[in-house]
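re: that chain from earlier
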Amino acid sequence: MKQGKESETGLRIASGTGEEIRADVSDNTLKAYEHATRKLESWLEGRALSDAVLAEYVRFLHEQGKSPATINLALSAVKWMAEHRGIDSVAGASTEGALSDVRQAGKRRERRRVDGLTWDDVERVCAVAESADTAAGLRDAAMISLMSDCLLRISEVVAVDVEDVGEEGLRMTSGESEQEERGAALYICDSTRRLIKRYRRRTGVDSGALFRRIRFQNHVSEDRLGVKGAREAIRRRAAEAGVEGSISGHSLRAGSALSLAEAGASVREVQRAGRWRDPAMPARYVREAPEEGSPVKRYKGE
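^ sequence. v structure.
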């Protein structure tokens, strides 16, 4: 769109937005907001944004097959923009009515089934989880992002302590693979580190179990999140983001292996990233490619 039309709608995130404002949301959420507002601007074609027009856009997205959670994320982006520009949000009764209709219809719509949560899926799931603006939402986003980076089993992620996350990465001191046995650190992306820090600031978790049970009204327990609770959180957050179906605790591990393969990683690279002893499992995802350095850092890292 032309620059004039962009300024009319006032939706873009200004390049000079202060760090204190950008810090309100994670990198993944900010990226999702930017993407959502670009899509809306393109659809508007220069029209002024109003409650009625936004309601029309909600129905348009629904007709395009977008999930209620994805549509809600688009509305969250508009509201966030308005808040940080100091203007009133246009979202009103018409928009809320359209969103209610979409949610009801979404319950009847068969969503896509997936086995793994790829890197693209994880970005969307974490953005939706964090947009809930709760301690549990931040915990789940941080946990899911860490599982994706490190190809963690669900039993491994619930065992992570604050002290295990260092400058060198995530240190695994015991486990099935040779890499775990020698205590090698697993690479963590910068965006995941920032998400973990934001979760810890919100909850006050400064030692011991990193991922805790969170009860009513954001009360953070001393108890470690269990395997069952972590599995339910992954399924719930994936469903909220419109990724529903055969999702399990293994979905982050499988999805990252698939993403590495699609990026060109070799069987050996994926085997090393996922700490598999037998190459048969990573061979299901991978085509051969040259290896160099940490595969997650090279293919995913900032």
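The beta strands are 165-166, 169-171, 185-186, 212-215, 219-224.
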